[in-house]
Amino acid sequence: MRGSPRMHARREADMETGEALANVEARAVTYSFLSGMFLREVSQDFLERLAAEPPHLGGELEGFAVGLATADLSTVRRDAAAEFAALLLGMSADPVHPYESVYTSPERLMMQDARDEVLALYRSQELGRVGDLNIPEDHAGIELEFMARLCRKELDAMTGGDEEAVWDVRRTQQTFVRDHLLVWMPRMCDDLEARAKSGLYRGLAQTTRRFLSLEREELDAG
After folding, report:
1. 99 strand-pairing partners
2. Angle, alpha carbons 50-56-58 (nearest 5°)
3. Which DSSP category does 94 fall into?
4. pLDDT surpasses 80 at 173
5. Which of 26, 58, 131, 151 is the most buried (most CB within 10 A)?
6. For 40-104, where are the alpha helices, taking DSSP H only?
7. How far apart are alpha carbons 27 and 17 in whole angstroms?
8. What is the pTM of this model?
9. What is the pLDDT of residue 126?
10. Residue 38 host element (H or E)
11. Which helix (H) or strand (E) holds 176?
């Protein structure tokens, strides 16, 4: 027996809601994944999980993950830690500085206006400090984790049926991506891709840049 038009419409609405929730959850997971890779060197456990379930991200990062199945993971971890230090901790002659202030201030210095702006925004959302790392708040990893938390905040509002809160946090995401992440992070990713030697960090640069481009489309469409 076929259901009534009202039941059919309700099922379609439930499916759309489920898809919307899954989409926001996937965005939160991706932001957290990218954040962690910018904030800390990869661990043996991380590499083992990556080898067991390579992410479907395309590009060099997926290729790197697939290659882990036949690699010596202890050697890979050691080499990755050395490259992380050289590229993102400043322990080389030509590092990448993963701070918004460096890419947006005329002097290319840390702790400039961008840091103050994002710190004020974090506080306005009452989301607190990201982790316990003693680094400026406009670090790439912290900005990406802020977006992950906003996505989770959106999820909470969606499951609670608070449509006004959903649109409020969605607008905050849109503004943060437009006024902060897209202003500097693609250029930082260009630098990272140019200087990285392994598929891990070239892939991180490619994936981050591509994901942010998709985010611009996602948030503009919303």
Report:
1. 139
2. 110
3. S
4. yes
5. 151
6. 44-52, 59-67, 73-88, 100-104
7. 15
8. 0.90
9. 80
10. helix 5-39
11. helix 163-176
